[in-house]
Amino acid sequence: MCGGVHFRKGYYEIDVNIDIYPTAYNDVKVRTRGYDDVHIDVDVDVNTSIDNEIVEKGDISFRLISEENKEFSRYDKSVDTYKYICEDCGFIMSFIKEKNVESISEEKKRKQKENTYDWTNFGK
Length: 124
Hints:
The chain has one helix at about 105-115, and strands at about 10-35, 40-65, 75-80, 80-85, 90-95. By secondary structure, the chain is mostly beta strands. It folds into 2 domains: about 10-80, no CATH class; about 80-120, no CATH class. The strands form 2 sheets. A 3-stranded antiparallel sheet has the order 1-2-3, with no helix packed on it. A hairpin with a 5-residue loop joins strand 1 (about 10-35) and strand 2. It is elongated and about 115 Å long.
């Protein structure tokens, strides 16, 4: 953990928007049969299908609670959060300031690069 003693309260604000666009399709079939001029049989088949297109959009932001004492000028500040996960234990940490971290893979690449020899001035 960071070992700090001063902390500010904050909260996550979630904004979700869902739009549904329904489209109805009708298929109508009409069949008629007549035996004479007076008796006519009419069969009507109506098939309806509905297709829904769903468009969803969401946003989550972290907001720091304002420390202003004035009620009308007080607003909570939106801040970016940086999340880091310990590759050894899986502990997840969130910060509002970016940290200089290195993954196991990045460390391995850095050490390989540091250990390569520079042969440009060899034998001079």
